Amino acid sequence: MEWVDTFLNDLRAQKLTIRLHRKNPETGLEEEQHIFTECQLRMLPGGIYEFIFPQEHKDIVLTGLGFHEKIGYAEFDIEKEFSLGFIKIKPIEYLRKFLRIDPIPEINSTQGLIFSKSWVSIIPLGIRYELGDVQEKAGSSYEGWWHEGI
Known about the structure:
- The chain is of the alpha+beta class.
- The protein has one domain.
- The chain is built from three helices and eight strands.
- Strands 1-2 form a two-stranded antiparallel sheet.
- Strand 1 and strand 2 form a beta hairpin.
- It starts with a helix and ends with a strand.
């Protein structure tokens, strides 16, 4: 259990840049700035973990987690089809619909973030995109700035 806790703490400790945009109220020109943001880890139903990070770092994060291999470290075929008499089902399809997860996309990176994954099995289910742009809330130090979904 100690190895899993170390891995989860590595995920929580990641800080990546996120690109913010806004239209300057004085000049009317669009401005852009990059700030560091902490990645998040959320637990979904069934003990599934969701790692939340800025979308522009998708390729290096997914490569670091081993999603480019299409299988986890456990020897389990997630796309396996089961036959129940005349009915054939793929449980992963129902799970992806329930959790609004997309299949794993093609990854165009050979570099990845380094996580402490010793003695930890990862079974990649897919990815979920936050739709649309996110406007920073009033009262925030970045009020009026927006960024892509995470």
